[in-house]
User: Fold this.
Amino acid sequence: MTSTPASPQGLHVGLFVTCLVDLFRPSVAFAAIKLIEAGGARVEVPRAQTCCGQPAYNCGDRKNAIALVRQVVETFERFDYVVAPSGSCAGMLRLHYPRLLADDPNFAERAASLAAKSFELTSFLVDVLGLLKVDAAFAGAVTYHDSCSSLRELHVREAPRRLLTSVDGLSLIELGDSEACCGFGGAFSVKYPEISAAILDAKLRDIAGTGAATVLSGDLGCLLHIAGRLARAREAVEVRHVAEVLAGMTDGPGIAAPRQSG
Assistant:
């Protein structure tokens, strides 16, 4: 997915934080803000934002999905661009909003307009702001997992890699099968745990085969899924969102799977 690079000066960007980032890894949002501002744009995080509606949409709850989608459109349509540090949520905004509201006379055009200016973070930095390097350092070898939504829905592949090559001290080692799913898929991992675990185990073997000490991705859902399995396997591989590395915000611990109660 590409766009003609625009002059970042004066651009007003609405950051769609995402539910998982808000609940489990707020540092990703702060990293995204730092990166967008480094590209010259102005960032705002609307307090009224909620879920993008994808969980309800994927589960067939069309009524609640549409209600959430309308609320997001009303909240974000005033911005020049909408950016999410997640291919999954960005894909929902960009591809599925117009389909959901196509027959709504009050929202069809508004949803299409929002979709056209909605981007995944690294794609926005490279393709819109024209940011080709970052002022960050990270010592060691990393590997990168492409989420299905980023890769297949949005066709985002080169942007994160292009930015990572500019990080001082970082060495990127590609996975043997970089296009393979991690097995998360939102509700898929809950409905089909055995299949999900088998897919994830193959991904972990691929990660181990690179010898990299850190695995990165642009989707927190994938990262939490991978981190949980790595912890259970007692594998000493750090898990981080790509935005944290690109922003030089890696002083804290890597991503850990949320603890389960009971």
